[in-house]
Write the structure tokens for this entry.
Amino acid sequence: TDMNNMSNTLRTCYLYLDQTSRSFAAVIRALDGELRDAVCIFYLVLRALDTLEDSSSIPYHIKAPLLQSFHTRLYQPLWNYSESCEKDRQVLEDFSTISLEFRKLALVYRDIITDICWQMGEGMAEMLESKLFTMDDWERVNNMIFKPNLYCFPSFLIVIILIFYLFQYLNPLFYQPPQYCHYVAGLVGIGLSQLFAASGQEEEVIREDTELANSMGLFLQKTNIIRDYLEDQQEGREFWPKEVWGKYAKTLSEFTQRECMPAAVSCLNELVTNAMQHIPDVFTYLSHLHNPDVFTFCAIPQVMAIATLAACYNNTQVFRGVVKIRKGLAVTLMMEAKNMTAVKDIMARQTLEIAEAIKPEDPSASETHHVVKKVLRLA
Ligand SMILES: CC(C)(C)CN1C(=O)[C@@H](CC(=O)N[C@@H](CC(=O)O)C(=O)O)O[C@H](c2cccc3ccccc23)c2cc(Cl)ccc21
């Protein structure tokens, strides 16, 4: 990106991009023309929304409406937000610079970004509310439609109510798990796919299969959640799904205790195995991309994620600190992830590392072997 012949406000946006994620900023800069600015602004707008959601200093009754109305702030030239204490608060304090450049984007990009922010803000507010009832947030079952007091109903009605409950859980039609990961990461994939298609640099088909785009985001977000266990614990946030950790402990914080390490590692390995289920969709999505800069932009976070999963698998260090892949490996992965063959080779190598670390006595061993075989067959 030639920083000389761009406006001061756009240059400021690219500086914010460099500050929020150095290595990834370089990948966004490599995108072509108007898609580059659209993705840069999309990334900063999402970072602002994410910073709002993360701000523990904002009380619920203020935060929920803020999240739900966030998309309207894109068209309020003077709107900034200075009540956040998060490290990325600058994108909120100077949001007017970002929204000014947003309003310069072509309408087609503005509509996509506005729509994703609207859906994401609604989803985040909904998750916030459900968290008030200490519901887990990995995959959240819709709250029961009603919680009747069974003792005031005649007996035959009780039977009907029990059947209804059973039906709700057993029948997939009723079981709508609006996944937290869908709101904060799946929607990003769906939005990016629409931006790629709108720019003409990728075919329309890329935006049709929202399941594939959703999987791209879920793979990254589930990996982040697995990796960030301790950091989130220390900040009083829990993202590991209760359906899983509830099989290994009474509270998620138990995994920080030495005597609970075997249970913690078994839970960790089940989550890593769960995240790997998205890899076939990642292969399919990437194989649909034609523009080399778009391919690299999408492939690099995915190969970083599989390397992070391999580093976390069976690793007690996840419960003692944040497991980061070595800088040298990160650089190698960024250099290599240029085409489908190279990406499949990286995924296969990292998956083999996980396969070699499987212990026969691990509760998920057979599922892990199963997903390893599936990935190696596709690679
Ligand atoms: C939550 C998340 C995974 C969506 C965050 N997310 C990403 O993780 C970034 C990578 C990133 O920010 N890395 C940081 C480190 C980190 O934060 O972990 C770095 O410094 O390298 O990539 C994703 C991202 C990039 C490319 C294609 C995607 C398809 C679907 C969903 C997300 C996709 C991202 C693209 C956009 Cl536009 C916005 C956010 C993201």
Observations:
- The radius of gyration is 22 Å.
- The pocket of IN0 is lined by residues 21, 23-24, 39, 42-43, 46, 184-185, 188-189, 192, 216-217, 220-221, 224, 297-298, 301 (CB under 6 Å).
- Residues 107-132 form the longest helix (26 residues).
- Residues 310 and 354 are 5 Å apart (CA to CA).
